[in-house]
Specification:
The structure is a single chain. 30% of the residues lie in helices and 24% in strands. It has a 7-stranded mixed β-sheet. By secondary structure, the chain is α+β, with helices and mostly antiparallel strands. The protein contains 6 helices and 9 strands. A hairpin with a 4-residue loop joins strand 6 and strand 7. It is globular and about 55 Å long. It is an enzyme of class 1 (oxidoreductase). Pfam families: 1-cysPrx_C, AhpC-TSA. It comes from Pseudoalteromonas arctica. This is Alkyl hydroperoxide reductase C.
Length: 189
């Protein structure tokens, strides 16, 4: 049995990331104050991972317009991230920070470490500006994620954060009707 991390706070961390040609130091303090996505993946120089990271890169400008920062994380080092960025056309288009977590501390704090392999599961975590986890998606290693659906989920999380008493139904898109839960709706949907 595991305990859900929904509504829990981001744990303290210090890490080095490869970001726009530089190595940068990051901590939980850098994450607070804006919406954030932590996008865990097993390893650099693999197969499904570049398709996912490239997909997120294609939506990164839209996420930035929404006030969201993306942090990809694997148990590789920041040096390995740079080497992958420099040698892969798909990874070369990434402009969001790529965090190295060789000790696995960050990966473990999000509950996605595969201990026997020293690798992360495919885990996506969306946090509000207060550092509370609002969305969790975890996949087995062979199942890739959709950045388009991730954007939709973030839009829904941002909407309900600013519209008290409303909820977003399945497949909700911005501009569509939401629901206001009440006794009158029970059994009518």
């Amino acid at each position: 049995m595991s305990t859900s991390l929904i509504n829990t706070k981001l744990q303290p961390f210090n890490a080095t990331a490869y970001h726009n040609g530089d190595f940068v130091e990051l901590s939980e303090k850098d994450v607070l104050g804006k919406w954030s996505i932590f996008f865990f993946y097993p390893a650099d120089f693999t197969f499904v991972c570049p398709t996912e990271l490239g997909d997120v890169a294609d939506y990164y400008a839209q996420l930035q317009e929404m006030g969201v920062e993306v942090y990809s994380v694997s148990t590789d080092t920041h040096f390995t991230h740079k080497a992958w960025h420099d040698t892969s056309d798909t990874i070369g288009k990434i402009t969001y920070p790529m965090i190295g977590d060789p000790t696995g501390r960050i990966t473990r704090s999000f509950g996605v470490m595969i201990e026997e392999e020293g690798l992360a599961l495919r885990g996506t975590f969306v946090m509000n500006p207060e550092g509370e986890i609002k969305i969790i998606e975890t996949h087995d290693l062979g199942i890739g994620r959709s950045a388009k659906e991730l954007v939709r989920k973030v839009q829904a999380a941002q909407y309900i954060a600013t519209h008290d008493g409303e909820v977003c139904p399945a497949s909700w898109q911005p501009g569509e009707d939401t629901l206001a839960p009440s006794l009158d709706l029970v059994g009518k949907i």
